[in-house]
């Protein structure tokens, strides 16, 4: 690529991290010299792009937990900009609100220079012509770090992208089942449930409402609520046919899933507030002791390690349970992308930033703070993937997890279905509004087909 990159030398990962996090916050200034360590001298091409670039280079970070990981990323971006002599502006965006904020920015013609997006949003934006391909950065990062993991490479090069590469992955969100092993053991359960039916049985035996509820799964219109799509698929339900054109929500398998979740909800297995939770609802429910099971990417574990190590120690972490038709555990990559509205100089800078942020010394520390799974072969060697039980689960999912949308077809239609929180909305109609399962499926089928028709060619 455009820069001769160097590793950070002479400092341990944790030492570098500590100095980055404490001394280089994008909001407080501080000693950015540490964050600039290892950036190298810009190539003539890159230096010219920096000279030609007008205005601040704006980057939207997708907020994760804990905040130290966001501060670390912001510090690295600021140091990169300082090294090039350009002003940077880092905006931290709640990942549950990124679709809404992106839609508003598209309408206002105010997209950032570059940004972090989930897989579904990258799919939607690329279909809408809002993203510039970044094949050079993708190839450079892969070559420099031992290559991309097969599941990530396949997702990035899905046929729906038309042989173009629109983003550079840096990690993935994968769901891990959190269980209160201490409480469950008192009821005779020595291992986490392997199926949703086993989980329901353990929930019934161990919960003590209103003090505790078994199933702390979001049924609300947030990203965590889209777990219900994976659950539905594990029961054999499908969003659409194999061609990815005709919705198939209205099916006996979906009805079976809705009957199962309605039975659990009516039986008091879910906290009543689960239908209106925000993005932190399930996290708070588990850490407060209200819920015995949640599904989370791992951010809760990071919080417990710091604030409640006893709870972290007494909890179990395992793969998602299987349904009657098998296990569905999708890998959900996060991408760095460049909007088409970014100037040519900005596009050159963005691709260099993506290679800078892929540095193994930096990323090992970043993942120590955050809860992303690996996407590059070099990342498999990071200590966190053996030292942390949650990260070990993410490592396993990287090797055995299902592709985005599986068993459905990953395309812009499916992404828009997920972005609209279509499955949790259908569930809410059954468990909150108390309409019949047949009517809820018919409504969801019609809504789904409207979404898919918008992408018909």
From TrEMBL:
<protein>
    <recommendedName>
        <fullName>ABC transporter substrate-binding protein</fullName>
    </recommendedName>
</protein>
<feature type="signal peptide">
    <location>
        <begin position="1"/>
        <end position="26"/>
    </location>
</feature>
<dbReference type="GO" id="GO:0042956">
    <property type="term" value="P:maltodextrin transmembrane transport"/>
</dbReference>
<comment type="similarity">
    <text>Belongs to the bacterial solute-binding protein 1 family.</text>
</comment>
<keyword id="KW-0732">Signal</keyword>
<keyword id="KW-0813">Transport</keyword>
<dbReference type="GO" id="GO:0055052">
    <property type="term" value="C:ATP-binding cassette (ABC) transporter complex, substrate-binding subunit-containing"/>
</dbReference>
<dbReference type="GO" id="GO:1901982">
    <property type="term" value="F:maltose binding"/>
</dbReference>
<dbReference type="Pfam" id="PF13416">
    <property type="entry name" value="SBP_bac_8"/>
</dbReference>
<dbReference type="InterPro" id="IPR006059">
    <property type="entry name" value="SBP"/>
</dbReference>
<dbReference type="GO" id="GO:0015768">
    <property type="term" value="P:maltose transport"/>
</dbReference>
